[in-house]
Amino acid sequence: MNATKRRNDNANQPRVKRNTRAGQSASFVDLVKLHRRIARDSASRLLQTPASSLVTLFVVAVALLLPALLFGLNSNLASLLAGFQNSAQVTLYLQDSVSEADGEEISNDLLTRNDIENAYYVSPSQALDEFGASSGLEDLLTEMTANPLPGAIVLTPSDVSSVAVDELARQLQKLSQVDVVQIDSLWLQRLAAISNLVSAIGRVLAVIVILGLFFVVGNTIKLAIENRKAEILVIKLVGGSDMYAARPFLYTGLLYGLGGGVLATLLQGIVLATFNSNLEVLMRLYESDFQLRGFGLMSSLLIIVAGATVGWTAALMASLRHIRAINP
Amino acid sequence: MIKFDNVSKRYADGQEALSDISFEVSRGEFAFITGHSGAGKSTLLNLILAIQTPSSGQLIANGVNLNRVSTSQIARHRRQIGTVFQNHQLLHDRSVYDNVALPLEICGYQPNDAARRVRAALDKVGLLNKEKSFPDALSGGEQQRVGIARAVVNRPSIILADEPTGNLDPALSAEVMKIFQQFQSVGVCLLVASHDAALIERLNCRTIVLEGGKLLADQKPRPQA
Ligand SMILES: Nc1ncnc2c1ncn2[C@@H]1O[C@H](COP(=O)(O)OP(=O)(O)OP(=O)(O)O)[C@@H](O)[C@H]1O
Ligand SMILES: [Mg+2]
User: Fold this and answer.
1) If you average pLDDT over residues A132-148, what whole number do you get?
2) Burial (CB count within 10 angstroms: exposed 0-12, middle 13-18, buried 19+), residue A135
3) CB distance A239–B117 less than 8 Å?
């Protein structure tokens, strides 16, 4: 009997009074190795059915993409809005009868009010010059005999909240020299309201998507478990717990979630690039160099982590439920 | 270690596979269960493994009350038992090595420790050279021996074997019985269902005879001459 053989024999000397915990204190490195093996195993199982795995992956990615795009659109909207904060303006268009001198005087009077931060008078001729300069129609305008534009006072309220601005506008409307009061921040308020709506829709959609993902991943796991019923049965017969039998399927769910998340951030990049090229044309008209921003590293990570979490949790719920039902 | 107390098992279809069985097997005891096909041998082993639950009577094995067990208790209970199944129950997409390693992996053994035990168990059943093969590429007898290696690899407190020598020639059967006796000698409790009258006769162990689900006889070993 050679040395190897003898060692082997010793290793398996039956011993009844054994420590049942023996070997359960596998080191961290071993544990990592074991989990890496299971993960690799799960991945190779996915590759065994590439078509259906890809379909599931794509469904997960698109599902994650929808709320992500909405939230992304909204964060862009919010940053656009932030740029205009404190820029609420009120323009008082004066009656035609008000002379330039009177206009200046009214403007100066308004400056004494403490709910007005700043005010300046724009005479009809100044207004015409500005319009001509910005529209490029100077030549045409010089041929006009009468100036159709009214004089105006442009003022900045001290308090830019919409309630305060509305109140100020209401008071100024009462002045006899004022023809029309225009709150320039109205469109901003509308945009803010739209932004709130978009984020509310995003939240609802996120809930629906999570439920949908639970269904999609859960169903995929259910099929995978049915395909491996015989294996689960054997594992249970030799004392594997439900959790042990579930482990490969948890990795399957995790891989779907991770892969879907990565795919979603890629798709999002493509969508943004497409939008941006269209947006550029629009923004040039508004003399803005505003660009849709990608979600940045943090948000991309968030999508991936969210996908992985949902995938893993859905797999956990589905696999424990279906594995419990498999009994010898 | 295993105690049947007026145990009966009636299957859902009304078939009474075991009726009013009482016996006890203690540590370090080796008992055969014999009887004609359909006598209830597999059913009896299934009860100990908590694959089936008794319809009536009390069954305690390895300190576990098998009339009332939770799912997690069942898994822990089965880990203490090495079982050779009548239909092998091997994983067909895993190598012989991985099949035998399964109980160790479930218990979380370190890979090195596991490898040593797996090789030792395969060596015992003479399959060390087949560790990379897959079960479908093995003969019936070889598959049976893989099942035996898997049953003993985790040093169980109880070994249950359902026709472990059904596909083995007399020489191999004798080998397997020698392995079992080694475990018996260190206090493992063995229960082996078998048809093989010659083998049972030769081994001179305690023999529990079933007939139509009833306990016909419980023969103690003959005193050695
Ligand atoms: N799952 C089941 N459902 C219903 N009846 C069953 C079930 N399993 C076994 N039986 C019945 O119980 C009786 C005992 O079966 P069992 O498998 O225990 O016999 P056995 O002694 O192991 O036979 P063999 O030597 O052929 O393996 C048989 O009549 C069988 O038909
Ligand atoms: Mg049987």
Assistant:
1) 74
2) exposed
3) no
Residue A290 pLDDT level (bands cut at 50, 70, 90): low
Q: Rounded CA gap, B75 and B1, in Å?
A: 18
Angle (CA) A262-A264-A268 rounded to 5° is 120
DSSP secondary-structure letter at B154?
T
- Reported as a pLDDT band with limits 50, 70 and 90, residue A39 is confident
Supply A244's token pair: 């042990």
| CB distance B99 to B127 below 8 Å | no
Q: Note whether A44 contacts B: Cβ–Cβ < 8 A.
A: no
Q: Minimum mean pLDDT among A199-203, A214-218, A323-327, B158-162: which range?
A: A199-203
**Six-digit token pair at B170?**
């007399």
pLDDT band at A159 (very low <50, low <70, confident <90, very high): confident
B183 and A14 within 8 Å at the Cβ level: the answer is: yes
Q: How far apart are the CA of A235 and the centre of ligand 1, in A? A: 23
B189: pLDDT strictly greater than 70: yes
Domain A90-184 CATH assignment equals 3.30.70.3040 = yes
pLDDT, residue A23, reads 44
Of A217, A206, A157, the C-alpha closest to A181 is: A157
Judging contacts by C-beta atoms under 8 Å, the chain B residues touching residue A12 are 117, 120-121, 123-124, 152-153, 155
Between CA A283 and CA A280 the distance in angstroms is: 5
Task: Please name the residue of chain A whose CA is at the shortest distance from the CA of residue B100.
Answer: A238
Q: Is the pLDDT reported for residue A241 higher than 80?
A: yes
Residues whose CB falls within 8 Å of the CB of residue A19, separated by 6 or more in sequence, listed in order? none
CA distance B64 to chain A (A): 14
Query: Which residues from B are below 8 Å from A240, CB to CB?
Result: 75, 102, 106
- How many whole angstroms separate alpha carbon A192 and alpha carbon A82? 10
Q: Which residues have C-beta atoms less than 6 Å from ligand 1?
A: B 11, 13, 15, 17, 35, 37-43, 86
Alpha-carbon span B171 to A175, nearest angstrom: 117
8 Å CB contact between A57 and A256: yes
Provide the pLDDT for residue A11. Answer: 46
Identify the CA nearest to B103 among candidates A229, A17, A244, A240: A240
Q: How far is the CA of B18 from the centre of ligand 1 (A)?
A: 9
Take atom 16 of ligand 1 and give the residue whose Cα is closest: B40
Q: A72-115: per-residue pLDDT in tens?
A: 777 777 777 766 655 678 888 988 888 888 989 988 888 888 88
Min Cα distance A214 → chain B (Å) is 25
- Least trusted range by pLDDT, from A49-63, A253-267, B42-56: A49-63
The domains of chain A are located at: 38-83+190-324, 90-184
Does ipTM top 0.85?
yes
